Amino acid sequence: MTGGNQIIDIALDERHAGWRLDRALADALPALSRERLKVLVKSGALSAGANLHRDPAIKVRGDEAFALAVPEPAAAHNEAQNIPLIVVYEDEHLLVIDKPAGMVVHPAAGNRDGTLVNALLHHCGPSLSGIGGVARPGIVHRIDKDTSGLLLVAKSDVAHEGLSRQFADHSIERVYAAIVTGVPTMLTGKVDAPLARSETDRKKVAVVRDGRGKRAVTHWKMRTRLRDAALVECRLETGRTHQVRVHMASIGHPLLGDPVYGRSPKQRQRELLARLMFRRQALHAEALGFVHPVTNARLSFTSALPSDMQELFSALGV
Q: What number of other Cβ atoms are within 10 A of residue 152's Cβ?
């Protein structure tokens, strides 16, 4: 350690000859992402003897030795809070959380504490190796405050980059269970409808056909027919904000209890929601599958319906 920096010695070998510097460094240092290494090189953190190397694009000979000064991760801006978490899986690179309904994922105006990030900062402590040089959990995707279920979080820079890439190319498996109003006339369906922020209400997302939207695809199938409702499975081909909620509403079957995209339920359902004190959209992220960004192992996780949705499901079946 020097001046708060960790000095890492790097020895490239012949197989690296002709590679870009940042690519060779990433291969030699798998714990740091290529993007993080680019930033460090440009900042003057890489040296060979008395010479600094600031160009991550130069080609290497393959027999060079370098020293990299890696700063200790800066402290996160948010407060660590001892909030209980349901941890489904954890290793040194990532963890999978089963988030309860009612918990905000990321601190923002009006929700500065009590969030998943606050809880993760306490839970992970010094095991966070740093995302972009900051000791923070890497939130690679989010689910709404009032949606329950599985959420994937990166603990290291290289994991964050690898998982973000999988979300960008839509190779992550994400399956939701939803209770919708009305009974679909078909057993399966596909909604391929672009989504964008509503021009009349910026807090809402809407299906748009004017070229502003991003492509969004949801594959759904009915699992159980209920009274004036149905339990459906929604498998995401893309992952847009509010995608399941908006897509199911667009085909006439909004999620039961959805205060934003729902419609006024029939009196029986309205009385049932009030009796059960069910005050959220009936949506649960029940399955998550991905390739581990470091070990390349295929991982899959499932989460059973939470008690409030199970109670609603049972009540609607009678």
A: 25
Q: Output the six-digit token pair for 125.
A: 């402590």
- Per cent of the chain over pLDDT 70 is 91
Which residue in 27, 63, 113, 144 is the catalytic one?
A: 144
Containing H/E element for 80? none
Sign of the Cα pseudo-torsion (32, 38, 43, 48, in order): positive
The pLDDT tens digits for 252-270 are 999 999 999 987 777 888 8
**Could you tell me where the DSSP H helices lie in the chain?**
21-28, 34-42, 116-124, 157-168, 243-250, 267-276, 307-316
Catalytic residue status for 144: yes
Strands 173-181 and 51-52: unpaired
pLDDT of 98 over the 70 cut: yes
The single-letter code of the amino acid at 240 is R
